[in-house]
Each structure stands twice: as structure tokens, then as C-alpha cells.
Amino acid sequence: MIRTIEILPEITNERTIYRAICGSVQTTGLTPGQALDSTLQKLSASEDTIVILQRFSSDDLFTER
Question: Is 10 domain-assigned?
Fold first, then answer.
């Protein structure tokens, strides 16, 4: 079984933090890497993991419109 960890940005008090979610485990950090590291420490190392970092901004292929 492959675990999925989703990392989402959250704006609180004019600053962005990142929340990593894997099933019932949720952690936060000042960077996506901090949130991911905190989550991985709480999970067993016996399974493979897929990490998804979703960016909510425009890029070369998708504009804000």
C-alpha cells in the first residue's frame, strides 16, 4: 500500500504555513519541507510514500483567469 501525503499552504495572521496531511496524521511547518518531515516522523517507515505539493498559483500553462 502506498501512502499519500498532501501538503497545502494556509495563510494565518498574514503569514503562510504549510499543513501536511496523511490520513489522520496532520502536521504544520513554516515550509513544506518542515511539514513533511514532521509528518514522516509520526509515520512508520515500512511503507512507500507519494508526496503531492499543490500550488494554487498561475504558471506558464495556466494563467489566473
Answer: yes
